[in-house]
Amino acid sequence: MWRTELFHPLIVHLPVVTLLLASAAGLLRLSAKGNSEFLGKLTFVMLVIGVISGWAGIYTGQLAYNVEVRKICDPKVLQNHQYWSYVSLIVYTVVLIIKMLKKYIATFNAVIINVLIVILLIAGGTALGYAGHLGASVVYEQGAGVHKPADDCSDYNPD
């Protein structure tokens, strides 16, 4: 159960959900009138949780990569998964930094900064979705990290 390559799927689902929620809240904020402040705070909180846990996911992904890269049929898919994971997390980290510094940045450019944040949230969500697709491909098409039982299931132990 506690194989090194299993730490990644254990960790990585939290940042995926929180970062996608940050993107959704950021997009909803554009059209929300009464809930705009709430959605702004929700976006920020989801970004903080997602970025911190995302970098933990990158670390555990590197551990899994070192174990699985030699076991799968096409390591290029795993490398692309790693690349797009970095891209998405860097984009989300930039958005978090912009949001943290937003009140210190020139206030007359608030509209431009808000548009930039939304564009980056869309880009981050797109890259994250593609990274997730590639990760699923590595697991479900190539069996990375998956235990393969014997044909007669003689090694299966339900306890």
Write up this protein:
The chain is an all-alpha fold. The protein is 73% helix and 0% strand. Helix 1 (7-31) runs antiparallel to helix 2 (36-68), helix 2 runs antiparallel to helix 3 (75-101) and helix 3 runs antiparallel to helix 4. The longest helix has 33 residues, at 36-68. It is elongated and about 70 Å long. The termini are close together. The mean pLDDT is 90.
What key attributes describe this structure?
159 residues, mainly alpha, 4 helices, 73% helix, elongated
C-alpha end-to-end distance: 12 Å
Radius of gyration equals: 19 Å
Q: Secondary-structure element sequence?
A: HHHH
Assembly status: single chain
Number of strands: 0
Helix content: over 70%
Strand count, sense and closure of the main sheet?
none
Model regions low in confidence, pLDDT < 50 over at least 5 residues: none
Shape: elongated
- Give the amount of beta strand, in percent: under 5%
Look at the helices and sheets and give the structural class: mainly alpha
Mean pLDDT metric: 90
Helix tally equals 4
